[in-house]
Amino acid sequence: MKSPSGQSTIEFIIIIAFMLLIFIMLVFLAWEKTTESNEFRTFIDAKKIAISITDNINTISRLGSGYYRYLSIPAGIYGNYEYEINITGNLVGITWGDYVWSDQMITSNVTIFCLDKGMNKKNRILNDNENILITCYRPDLGPVNATLKPYSAGANSSINVSIDVTNFGVRNAGSFVVLFNSQSTIVHSLDVDQTKTITVNLTTPESPGNYTIEIYVDSNNEINESIESDNLYNGTIRIQ
Q1: Which pLDDT tens digit goes with each residue over 38-59?
Q2: 157 with 126, same domain?
Q3: CB count, 10 Å around CB of 75?
Q4: Do residues 212 and 236 make contact, with C-beta atoms less than 8 angstroms apart?
Q5: End-to-end distance of the chain based on CA atoms, in angstroms?
Q6: Handedness of CA 86, 89, 129, 47 (dihedral sign)
Q7: Residues with Cβ < 8 Å from 92, sequence gap 6 or more?
Q8: Distance of alpha carbon 74 from alpha carbon 178, whole angstroms
Q9: Are 17 and 129 in the same domain?
Q10: Paired residues of 149 in beta bridges
Q11: Cα-based distances in Å from 54 to 77, 82, 124
Q12: What is the pTM of this model?
């Protein structure tokens, strides 16, 4: 026959074990709810970023060619998750961890050249003849093609050839080289939304005809630009 004290000890141990089991279950449920809450907050954060990009693209698409907006997006989303933005057809997709969420745009003519994260960095969304171009927090240099002068010149003569170069990016550019055929000249700086007329002296061919001038802005790739593919222009001068 068990003593009363021994039986009380066993009952006490059972009660403690039962209470410990309940405590573990409560901790697990609290952890599960916290995890679900954090995942939901992360999802809402990611969704807001994608919707913001979509809304800006849709607005610029409706406004028409030549309009642009600046957009900043967070460096990360809730929970210190890194994320990626991608465009597929008319969908803006955001990916984080094993999750993907997409939002629909009104256009599929969208190209992301680069996209910088961080609220202190500006990305630009531009409507270029109904093509939506997204560029990042860098300079964007390029020749203004229609400004090439002169239109014609005499054969075997020394002429001053000029073209306007603009910086349509979101950051100022430092020193870079502009190449006219084999003749180079240095531009020491070009601020945002500024244009400079660049002039060099060239000798025209001896025979009449069309004289091609290959103009390459930032020919040595000194400047890290949003779009590198718009730096080359082949112009024509009529030689009489």
Answers
A1: 788 999 999 999 999 999 999 9
A2: no
A3: 13
A4: yes
A5: 127
A6: negative
A7: 50, 53, 54, 57, 85, 86, 102, 103, 104, 105
A8: 36
A9: yes
A10: 162
A11: 17, 19, 13
A12: 0.78
- Domain holding 165, by residue range, is 141-239
Print the SS3 string covering the chain: CCCHHHHHHHHHHHHHHHHHHHHHHHHHHHHHHHHHHHHHHHHHHHHHHHHHHHHHHHHHHHHCCCCEEEECCCCCECCCECCEEEEECCEEEEEECCEEEEEECCCCCEEECCCCCCCCCCEEEEEECCEEEEECCCCCEEEEEEEEECCEECCCCEEEEEEEEEECCCCCECCEEEEECCEEEEECCECCCCEEEEEEEEECCCCCEEEEEEEEECCCCCCCCCCCCCCEEEEEEEEC
Same domain, 64 and 168: no
Q: Are residues 43 and 106 in the same domain?
A: yes
pLDDT in tens, 212-234: 999 999 999 999 999 999 999 99
**At residue 215, what is the residue type?**
I
Q: How many residues does the chain have?
A: 240
CA distance 70 to 126: 9
How far is it, in rounded angstroms, from Cα 157 to Cα 106?
54
* Whether 155 contacts 239, CB under 8 Å: yes
Instruction: Determine the Cα–Cα distance for residues 161 and 236; give it in Å rounded to an integer.
Output: 11
Question: Which of 87, 114, 137 is the endpoint of a domain?
Answer: 137
171 with 235, same domain: the answer is yes
